[in-house]
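As the work plan foresaw, our protein records have gained a structure token line. A representative record is set out beneath this paragraph:
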Amino acid sequence: MKEKSLKPLLVIVVLGFMTSFSLAQTLTVFAASSLTEAFQSLAKTFESEHEGVSIDFNFAGSSTLSTQIAQGAPADIFASANMQQMELVVDAGLAEAEPTLFAANRLVLITPSDSSLSSLEDLSQQGIRLVLAASEVPVGGYAREALERMNTAFGADFSKEVLANLVSEESNVRQVAAKVELGEADAAIVYATDAAILSQVKTINIPDEYNVLATYPIAIIKETKQLELAQAFLAFLLSDQGQELLKKQGFQTLP
């Protein structure tokens, strides 16, 4: 009799362990460096609403991430800071579906807090130590495009003169910003969201006529083993709640 009475309890205990194990899921998200704080905030909320779920991030320059994915790095989701790097993944047949745009960002110029630089035109002065991301990194490409647009205001050779002051090209926007914050550079062009979290820099606005709006696409990777969970994360990101969290981090939402 005792043996029989214990069986239902044993079944309940075993099922409890199985249920707990099945709920323990990890989603691996490869995301552009500029998304760090925003996605960490999103993950905290998403995890709180999905018991047993954890999100692991790999934050880096989008060009680095697309290369890693192409080389077989295990990712469930890729969020890029431009469509060019996303298209490399899509064209390789590695995306589960067409990417979706989910946010936008603006460029700003940053300088050390005590810098005498006060305008965009000052960037062409000889001896200015300028730092940008490499041209293949989204923010680096956007920055060079913005400088080209400034030629209409500051002279046909303006962008060429500015790039003559380039002393370092970094692999992601956080490394660019760090050079200025540490006093190793006199100026850099970064995203507005990155400038907003820095305390030791001065921000100079780039007017709309010269600025470049960075748009962020996201896609699920075809080889994911967490398709339903990845779809749930995308749905959350695109929801009113997810978009509001992005806005709080300084991103512009898309219509």
The radius of gyration is 23 Å. Residues 228 and 234 are 10 Å apart (CA to CA). Residues 1-22 have pLDDT under 50 and may be disordered. The chain has two domains: 2-104+216-248, 107-205.
